[in-house]
Specification:
elongated, repressor, YfiR_C, Homeodomain-like_sf, DNA-binding
Length: about 200
């Protein structure tokens, strides 16, 4: 990549970062191209040259955001953190972030995901990258004795999804934080505690 291409790529990334910051705070509709240009320190013309329209920019921001989130997951999965810590982060950390995202941006994100009938970048990322890594994580959990070998990966994924969806409804962050440890134990062992041998 020559100097021109590097500068072009950097400008594009600056625009995506600025857009993501503003969209997460105010939502897609309330943010103007003028505000994005100012935050990214570029002209509006540059934004239109790179992205064509605000709608195309918003679509690219969703992909940019998904890539950022996934990069965080990959670092977590590759880390030497104990299995329980990894699961805690998967369930709680991203949920805490979700509770600090503008509701309209979250709705736009979900619309982007569902409008294309699941046949899109997010679905592809989940199927090709996330799912195999989660399967590896569950294997690690079984090997360390945290996951019952009789419980399927599908059931675990559904359980995590139920947990996360509840925690993303409304402002429950403050209610959840004091119970993180207890909820993690409840997640693994249920209300009866550890399964008896």
């Amino acid at each position: 990549m020559d100097g021109f291409e590097k500068r072009k790529q950097q400008k594009k990334e600056d625009i995506l970062n600025a857009s993501l910051t503003l969209f997460k705070k105010y939502g897609v509709q309330r943010v103007s191209v003028t505000e994005i240009a100012k935050k990214a320190n570029v002209s509006q013309v540059t934004i239109y040259n790179y992205f064509g329209s605000k709608n195309n920019l918003a679509h690219e921001v969703i992909i940019f955001y998904v890539d950022q989130v996934w990069e965080g997951y990959e670092q977590l999965f590759d880390s030497n953190a104990p299995f329980l810590d990894k699961i805690k982060q998967v369930i709680f950390d991203k949920t805490m972030e979700a509770n600090h995202i503008n509701q309209e941006f979250f709705e736009y994100f979900m619309k982007e995901y569902t409008d294309e009938g699941g046949n899109n970048y997010i679905e592809e990322m989940y199927t090709k990258k996330a799912l195999p890594r989660f399967m590896d994580l569950f294997k690690e959990g079984r090997e360390q004795g945290y996951i019952n070998p009789n419980i399927s990966n599908e059931a675990i994924l559904l359980y995590i999804q139920i947990f996360k969806e509840y925690m993303q409804k409304g402002d429950v962050t403050k209610e959840i934080l004091p119970f993180t440890e207890e909820l993690t134990k409840l997640f693994f062992y249920g209300i009866a505690g550890k399964e008896k041998d």
